[in-house]
Amino acid sequence: MGNCFLSYNHKSIVNPERNATKSYVGYCYEVVDGDTIKVVWKPSVFSGRRKDVIRLFHIDCPEKNTVEGQSAMKHTHNLCYKKYVKIIPSGKNEKYGRWLALVQVNGKDLSTLLKQANHVKGVVK
Predict the structure, then answer these.
(1) In whole angstroms, what is the distance from residue 97 CA to residue 84 CA?
(2) Cβ contacts of residue 44 below 8 Å, gap of 6+?
(3) Model pLDDT for residues 52-111, shown as the tens digit of each residue
(4) Which residues pair with 28 in a beta bridge?
(5) Which residues, at least 6 apart from 45, have a Cβ–Cβ distance to it below 8 Å?
(6) Burial, 73: exposed, middle or buried (Cβ in 10 Å; 0-12, 13-18, 19+)?
(7) How far apart are CA 82 and CA 92, in angstroms?
C-alpha cells in the first residue's frame, strides 16, 4: 500500500513522515463545504485509484447550513469541482481524519482565492 497512508471510509491514517516537501495531484470530485473537498488520486500517485478528504489548511469558512456557508461552498465548487488540484500536505491531520493541506487550482492558492472573495470567517493556526 506504499508508505503514505491507508484510507478507510474517507478518514486517513497518516504516516508521520508525510510533510509539505511533496505535493500530489488529485481530481476534485466533490465539494463538502467551503473549506473541504474530496479528491481521487491519479493512479500514478499511489498504488491504484483512491480517494481522500482534504481540509484547507489555515482557514475556516462558515458552516454550510448558513447563507454565508452556502456562498463559500458555491465559490469553492466553481473554483475546483471536476478539476485537477495540487495538494501540498501540512504533515498533519485534523480531528476528523482529513488531510490538512494547501490546495492549488490552476497554480493559484484556493485559500487565498476564498479570502479575497470574503468567504473566510477566520484563520486557523
Answers:
(1) 22
(2) none
(3) 899 999 899 999 999 999 999 999 999 999 999 999 988 888 888 888 999 999 999 999
(4) 39
(5) 24, 25, 26
(6) buried
(7) 25
| Cβ–Cβ < 8 Å for 10, 38 | yes
State pTM to two decimals: 0.79
Task: Check if the beta carbon of residue 49 is closer than 8 Å to that of residue 87.
Answer: no
Please report the domains of the chain, with CATH numbers, ordered by start residue. Answer: 5-123 (2.40.50.90)
Strand-strand pairing, 11-14 and 108-109: unpaired
Q: Residue 27, CB half-sphere, CA atoms under 13 Å: how many?
A: 9
CB distance 17 to 60 below 8 Å: no
Q: Residue 55 CB: number of other CB atoms within 10 A? A: 23
- Determine the straight-line distance between the first and last CA of the chain, rounded to whole angstroms: 32
Q: What would the pLDDT profile of 20-38 be if each residue is shown by its tens digit?
A: 468 889 999 999 999 999 9
